[in-house]
Amino acid sequence: MSKSLQAGSKSSSELVVGVALTVSPSLIRTDVVELYEEENRPMVLNRSLLQSPLTSRYEFTHKAIWAVSLPQTNPTWDAIKCYTVGPALPDLEHWAFVAKGHFPGLPDMDAYFIAQFNSDSYIPTAEERKKEKKGGVKKYHFAADLVEKNKRHAALLLCTTKEKTHVWAYLQDNRGEWKSMGDILKEPKGELVSKNFNESQWKMMSKPLKLGEINDLMYKTSLVGQEYTPADKNCQLFAKDMYRLAS
pTM here? Predict the structure, then answer.
């Protein structure tokens, strides 16, 4: 994977809905860091954010899968080629699960929950997490990201290079097929297609989920305790699992 830079431009204390919290700035790949603005950068979901009396109140009501084409320099390409004989491969897609929410009483205070399973990801089992809580060495660092207000920043988290910044949405239809529902970002430089809420690009969940509730769904997917493999235990399986669980 590409080298990464911390997204936080100041200290580890960020302003989150008006209150300073100790948060972990997300890792932004050096190839796309220049595309980010200074405000409302992604944050790694950690205990501080999940237990905060403010951010823990976010209610997530809509879900989608976002996708981006992988550059052919990505390590996943080389791994997939090992399974393939014949003509050139079509574009490979990286998928992420995304949920959209808001702060109660503040409909303009949007938040985006972004969860991705990458080649270096590992989701610890309940037993492994329990050992860490009891004072064991923190070995597992799998986490989702939280982005406040900035839809473009949420979508840029999928991108590994500034040349591949076309991000689009998928929804599952009544027959179980995945349909492209239009663009989120377009090239060049990951330009946001629309700042407004586009209902056709989201599926409403049956009930709102708090930040902690939707975060817990990651530990109910079929990839818990599994190492990444490009053929089957991959980003697309994880995103589909999250979409199903966030019913």
Answer: 0.84
